[in-house]
Automatic annotation (TrEMBL):
<feature type="region of interest" description="Disordered">
    <location>
        <begin position="113"/>
        <end position="149"/>
    </location>
</feature>
<dbReference type="InterPro" id="IPR014731">
    <property type="entry name" value="ETF_asu_C"/>
</dbReference>
<comment type="similarity">
    <text>Belongs to the ETF alpha-subunit/FixB family.</text>
</comment>
<dbReference type="GO" id="GO:0009055">
    <property type="term" value="F:electron transfer activity"/>
</dbReference>
<keyword id="KW-0249">Electron transport</keyword>
<keyword id="KW-0285">Flavoprotein</keyword>
<dbReference type="Pfam" id="PF01012">
    <property type="entry name" value="ETF"/>
</dbReference>
<dbReference type="InterPro" id="IPR014730">
    <property type="entry name" value="ETF_a/b_N"/>
</dbReference>
<feature type="compositionally biased region" description="Acidic residues">
    <location>
        <begin position="116"/>
        <end position="132"/>
    </location>
</feature>
<feature type="compositionally biased region" description="Basic and acidic residues">
    <location>
        <begin position="133"/>
        <end position="149"/>
    </location>
</feature>
<keyword id="KW-0813">Transport</keyword>
<dbReference type="Pfam" id="PF00766">
    <property type="entry name" value="ETF_alpha"/>
</dbReference>
<dbReference type="InterPro" id="IPR001308">
    <property type="entry name" value="ETF_a/FixB"/>
</dbReference>
<dbReference type="InterPro" id="IPR014729">
    <property type="entry name" value="Rossmann-like_a/b/a_fold"/>
</dbReference>
<keyword id="KW-0274">FAD</keyword>
<dbReference type="InterPro" id="IPR029035">
    <property type="entry name" value="DHS-like_NAD/FAD-binding_dom"/>
</dbReference>
<dbReference type="GO" id="GO:0033539">
    <property type="term" value="P:fatty acid beta-oxidation using acyl-CoA dehydrogenase"/>
</dbReference>
Length: 574
């Protein structure tokens, strides 16, 4: 029996479970269990890629076994990483020159030779020399060098996970509550893994900036935000920092950015001209910081991280903290070596293909630090935690100076736009995708008719409908606007029943509907990604299937119709 049952995990959950398994036999047992069970295409591909990786690692790495004429440039790039002897690489370079003679392949091999040669010079490690921007680019002006907050910190002290809790019109957004709950989970696990007892047991950690448990710090900026402090503590915050000013009732880029950066370096010591010392903390900057991936949160996160001279992973839907082994000489400072960076926040986000996740890391260079490690979180990515009224925490008021010059524009009047269509409260959502392409108007009409069969239902669409070049008749055009978009950059819904018609199942869309009670997918492609996370999968054209479903709902025979038409999806039974 394999150590894990792949059937107990979604495909998104299976990846992290496999990352610590390096035994090929064990991975093959897991693959067999998946194939004998649900046999999800995505899961099989994921396990097979893991097997292939370690099967390659088990090879002896002898360049004599490599034939460049049978390898792509990418294959050569992967192969040279496992070769540690310069002589083997030189032999491979000769073979490439004699066979294909591809310049790109020769450059890859030569670079590996150069990296290994540098690390062996004089029998000592060769460190990368630090250069200032002025030294690297003497012909350019560097106005950022004079900015108050853009100063790299070397060997700074960092602690805690900060959460920017966004409010609008006096109310705290649900995504702020989600982030507090997730931050509490992360820091509880962090303190278990890296706390005093764990550090002592391992003989001490590479990062000694924190000698005890680290905290979740909520940050509230605005007018009349103090009323949210108790809720922030109940949801997981250990400390709540408030910044109150009636001029901050509306989000403004300049003051919000400057205030957050002042608070982040409050009590730190990265250089002259910083905020006054703080009696509630004594580190230079936060270790981690989370922002909501809302319109305002996206803007603020990018501005703050740039001002603090760090990096940002935007639109994240998964977070975890663990050590990372890195061999990039830009990060290690020593070509040909691998370094372990501890306490790294791994930030997962859908990549541009729409079907896979990328994991973003914010890792220090040898001569400068990149902190806080920061990311913005897609609303709906995490559950809102249950408040704990017994939790206790500290409330800190920031009383720094707010410069009138930060408010360059005065808002004299404004209108509140119609909030548009809210799909989040419906018991049933019928979502239409690119499968309507053969007859866009007819496809939307069928979706609307099916939604009308239910007492509490509405119609949503994918981004492909919103941004596509489909031509719709006036009677359905209102249902195809961005306000009905479901997914990463749209609404996040969790109805009792979600019907996805003509939708392939890109990660960006999955983020918006994955928590639905029952998911029914209709698609002509039996290998569509959406099958992996559907309870029922109907292989067929929506123009043929939807009329039958409409008749079934109207007659009350929905279960029988689904059982007759649907194959079991990757997450459910037939």
């Amino acid at each position: 029996m394999p150590t894990i049952d792949p059937g107990e995990y979604t495909i998104a959950e299976l990846g992290p479970e496999l990352k610590d398994i390096a035994d090929v036999d064990e991975l093959e047992a897991i693959l067999e269990a998946e194939q004998d069970g649900e046999n999800r295409t995505g899961a099989v591909t994921l396990i097979e890629s893991r097997i292939e990786k370690f099967s390659e690692d088990d090879e002896d790495g002898d360049a004599g076994d490599l034939d460049p004429s049978e390898m792509s440039v990418a294959d050569i790039g992967n192969a040279v990483r496992d070769l540690e002897e310069v002589e083997d690489l030189e032999a491979l370079l000769e073979a490439e020159e004699a066979a294909e003679g591809r310049d790109s392949a020769k450059r890859l091999i030569q670079k590996r030779i150069d990296d290994l040669s540098e690390s062996e010079d004089d029998g000592e490690d060769t460190e990368v020399e630090a250069e200032t921007p002025e030294e690297r680019h003497p012909d350019l002006d560097h106005p950022t060098a004079d900015k108050r907050h853009v100063r790299a910190i070397d060997d700074g002290s960092y602690e805690d996970m900060w959460v920017y809790c966004e409010t609008q019109q006096g109310d705290m957004l649900d995504v702020s509550r989600e982030m507090l709950g997730k931050a509490r989970q992360l820091m509880d696990q962090y303190n278990e893994d890296y706390g005093v007892s764990a550090s002592e047991a391992s003989g001490g950690s590479e990062d000694e900036s924190s000698g005890g448990d680290e905290k979740v710090v909520a940050v509230l900026v605005g007018d009349d935000v103090e009323k949210h402090t108790e809720e922030c503590i109940e949801l997981g915050a250990d400390v709540v920092v408030t910044v109150e000013d009636d001029r901050l009732a509306r989000f403004r880029h300049k003051p919000y950015t400057r205030i957050f950066c002042d608070v982040a370096r409050w009590g730190g010591d990265p250089g002259e001209g910083n905020p006054d010392p703080a009696d509630w903390r004594d580190y230079d900057e936060p270790r981690y910081v989370l922002f909501p991936a809302t319109n305002n949160g996206r803007d603020l996160s990018a501005l703050v991280q740039a001002e603090l001279d760090s990096g940002l992973a935007s639109d994240c839907s998964g977070l975890y903290i663990e050590d990372a082994e890195i061999s990039n000489p830009v990060k290690t400072g020593e070509p040909g070596t691998t370094k372990t960076f501890d306490r790294i926040l791994h930030m997962k986000r859908p990549d541009f293909s729409g079907f896979e996740y990328s994991t973003i890391l914010c890792i220090d260079n040898p001569h400068r630090d990149f902190h806080p490690q920061g990311g913005s979180v897609i609303p709906g990515s995490f559950e809102v935690p249950d408040p704990d009224p017994d939790r206790e925490g500290e409330v800190v008021e920031w009383d720094g100076d707010i410069d009138d010059g930060w408010f360059h524009v005065e808002v004299t009047d404004h209108d509140v736009l119609d909030e548009g269509v809210d799909l989040t409260g419906n018991e049933v959502v019928v979502a239409m995708g690119r499968g309507i392409g053969d007859n866009p108007t007819k496809g939307m009409e069928l979706g609307i008719e099916l939604a009308d069969c239910f007492e509490d239902a509405d119609v949503g669409v994918t981004r492909g409908i919103v941004t596509g070049s489909y031509q719709f008749d006036a009677n359905v055009e209102q249902y195809t606007h961005e306000e009905r978009q479901i997914g990463e950059t749209g609404q996040v819904v969790a109805p009792d029943l979600y019907i996805a018609a003509g939708i392939s199942g890109a990660v960006q869309h999955k983020v918006g509907m994955d928590d639905s009670g029952v998911i029914v997918a209709i698609n002509t492609d039996p290998d569509a990604r959406i099958r992996d996370f559907s309870d029922y999968f109907i292989e067929g054209d929506l123009f043929d299937v939807l009329p039958g479903l409409i008749d079934a709902v109207e007659s009350g025979d929905v279960s029988e119709a689904l059982a007759a038409a649907a194959a079991p999806g990757g997450a459910g039974d037939d």
